[in-house]
Amino acid sequence: MLSKEHIQAALRPIAEPTLKRSLVELQWIRDMMVKEDRVSLTVVCLEKDEETQKQLEQEIRDRLAEAGVNQVHLRFREASEREREEAGGGAGKKESSDEEVLRKGHAAGLDKLPILDPKSGVKFIAVASGKGGVGKSTVTINLAVALARRGFRVGLIDADIYGFSVPDMMGIEEAPNLDGGAIIPVERFGVKVMSMGFFIQENNPVIWRGPMLGRMLRQFFSDVDWGELDYMLLDLPPGTGDVALDVHQMIPHSSEIIVTTPHATAAFVAARAGAMALKTNHEVLGVVENMAYYECSGCGQKDYIFGRGGGARLAETLHTGLLAQIPVGAPDNHPAEPDFSPCVYKQDSVVGQIYDDIAQQVVAKYTKD
């Protein structure tokens, strides 16, 4: 049976045309999905020259055919500025001692800094809401994917342990693997994912008290090999309960995004989640107003079916900005697509561009700091 390791071994000899380095070693083979004898993946390249791309595509298809792959779905995208810098060795940039440890890892004879250590450089973003049903998980996964599309190394923890939904929403059908006692997260759309949903059979309910939830969340940090990350997103359960409090205590340097709908009551309830963040000295990066309006596909008219202004009022209450207003809708994805996901918007879609803009604002806020 085909596996990701099998596919990577087959593609390892293929070099990026300009750098003359293995695409696998560069980690420029992304979003790999293996189903029986079908494989879909994204190839990152320095230049999207049509002739060069055709040659590279043919070489990939030939090697995968030799490995027993009958159907191949390929996507190409140009490397981001960050990926270009990393591939070029970060010329002109002097590494600090902590950065050197993170880059070299065990090869330098030193352990990586713990992911929760502020010196690790990981930027933690908790996505919260006052109540369920406002699209918090949808915002979390699409923001994570948007950051990954920009070339950042992204992790995502489905911290909504009672109402876990991230694996299903992202179209993940596999479970994490174990390597030397460490849990290897599942990677999808360039995002490393960990969820309680991987460990619950047949959608059974989680009947646990608060301390057990906190213990599981700690295991997601301590027992999972996340590798090197730039951003870690946490999909918090709605409200201000035990898990949200545990996150605020475990990650005192995290920031928060609050999700609401435009309805006045939803925004009023969401203010509690924002107030909790502020009282525990966490920065609120901004507010996302989901289901802001419905836009008619025929005439383009916008109908504000859940009211107007809730997101802006919430942002004003929390002394932060309104990051985006996202319309009501669903991704135009088809189950027959090789990289099908029920809830991840395509990069070139209207809503996909909105999430890309949110990602840009988030990156700008951290760059400014």
Task: Give a brief description.
The protein has eleven helices and 15 strands. By secondary structure, the chain is an alpha/beta fold. Helix 5 (136-149) packs across helix 11, helix 7 (210-222) packs parallel to helix 8 (242-250) and helix 9 (264-279) packs parallel to helix 10.
Structural overview:
- There is one protein chain.
- With 369 residues, the protein is an alpha/beta fold.
- The chain has 11 helices and 15 strands.
- The chain has an 8-stranded mixed sheet, sandwiched between helices. The protein has a 3-stranded mixed sheet with strand order 1-2-3, with helices on one face.
- A hairpin with a 2-residue loop joins strand 6 (177-179) and strand 7.
- The chain is globular.
